[in-house]
From TrEMBL:
One of its GO terms (molecular function) is transferase activity. InterPro entries: GalNAc_Trfase_b (IPR010446), Nucleotide-diphossugar_trans (IPR029044). SUPFAM superfamilies: Nucleotide-diphospho-sugar transferases (SSF53448). Pfam families: CgtA. This is Beta-1,4-N-acetylgalactosaminyltransferase. It comes from Helicobacter apodemus.
């Protein structure tokens, strides 16, 4: 990243770009620096954002040549012409799968816009309004493609291959061209698009992989708590990754009392004897991404907030949470910008969700 591009990125906020995108949705001219505007969605709860540099950003972007086409939305990628290249890691596809996430969906999708230019949004078995939100979003931002999976996805004892999660994952993945980059994104997260986009510069070879670090946040009575994963309260390498599509595919992972070792759980090709025995009994079918070859794995700074407790199947707070004010880690000030852990910041992001659903 050149010093000029770095300076331009650092000079503007996620909200500056989102406000411009919201104004564009509503055909509103940018005439003032300090601008507060509401999102224009009709399928989810609108929320309001403020930009302190709306006019400066709009003026700068309008001066730039080759802005990427009239249909491209606003984002940090507009500062770097290399992000116009569909083969560049600066221009990855968002790889998104959705099932009944209407509470968080639109706010999460909006949050990726200043970093991600395009994407595929697969969805299955939605009956909570998620489909309507996806179709509205893709109509507004046509570089995102809605893909309705034609089969039901079953985790426990799926009837057919088409009903298995790994099969569904590969179906959605098939819409991403070979040789182009994609990043797995989940829709119960709010992404810090500036930090996410800057992390894309870490990738040098098409065999490199970027993993996104994350934290899990729970909210109860206006108090913020941090969830604990197997990696601790700060998950330094989560399951959201950026990689180049070099014949990538997911494998089936079989969870059964008969299969205790990771290697036994992954079904690649013809099932082994013990796998066949597990498939004849009660089992759960998941997905697994097995890395066949890669040069180097990079890890991002903290660049997104995970709110797992909002999904109805996960409502409530686990017993092992830690109050936000008690969290202390050597990563603070190094990998974690302190402002990201301010209570007011987290509650402000949380307020964007459509929790009345």
């Amino acid at each position: 990243m050149s010093p000029k591009i770095c300076s331009q990125i650092n000079n503007f906020s996620n909200e500056d770009f989102l406000v411009l995108n919201f104004a564009r949705e509503q055909n509103l001219a940018i005439t003032q620096e300090n601008l507060t505007i509401s999102s224009a969605t009709k399928t989810s709860k609108p929320y309001t954002l403020q930009s302190l540099k709306a006019l400066s950003l709009d003026t700068l972007l309008n001066k730039k040549k080759g802005g990427g086409g009239a249909n491209r939305h606003y984002g940090f990628f507009r500062f770097d012409s290399k992000a116009n290249n569909p083969k560049s890691p600066l221009n990855p596809w968002g790889y998104i799968r959705v099932k009944n996430e209407a509470r968080t969906l639109r706010a999460s999708l909006d949050s990726i816009l200043p970093a991600i230019q395009r994407g595929v949004i697969g969805y299955n078995d939605c009956d909570d309004g998620s489909e309507e939100i996806i179709l509205e979003f893709c109509q507004t931002y046509p570089s995102f493609i809605p893909i309705k999976y034609p089969y039901s996805v079953e985790i426990k004892n799926p009837k057919k291959e088409e009903n298995k999660l790994y099969y569904y994952s590969n179906y959605i993945l098939s819409f991403i061209p070979q040789g182009e980059w994609f990043i797995k994104l989940d829709m119960d997260h709010i992404y810090d698009a500036k930090k996410l986009f800057k992390s894309l510069y870490l990738l040098k070879k098409n065999t490199d992989i970027l993993t996104l670090s994350r934290m899990d946040f729970y909210i109860q009575w206006e108090e913020v708590y941090i969830g604990k994963s197997v990696r601790g309260y700060y998950n330094r390498a989560g399951d959201q990754t950026l990689r180049c599509n070099l014949n990538c595919k997911y494998y089936e992972r079989i969870l059964s009392p008969k299969l205790q070792e990771w290697g036994d759980q992954i079904l690649k090709g013809k099932p082994t004897k013990i796998q066949l025995e597990a498939l004849q009994e009660n089992y759960h079918s998941y997905e697994a991404k097995v890395e066949d070859s890669y040069s180097r794995v990079y890890r991002s700074e903290l660049c997104h907030y995970h709110f797992p407790g909002i999904k109805k199947r996960r409502e409530g707070i686990p017993q092992n949470v830690l109050p936000l004010k008690e969290f202390n880690d050597e990563a603070i000030g190094v990998e974690i910008v302190p402002k990201m852990l301010e209570k007011e910041t987290i509650l402000s992001l949380y307020s964007r969700f459509d929790l009345a659903r």
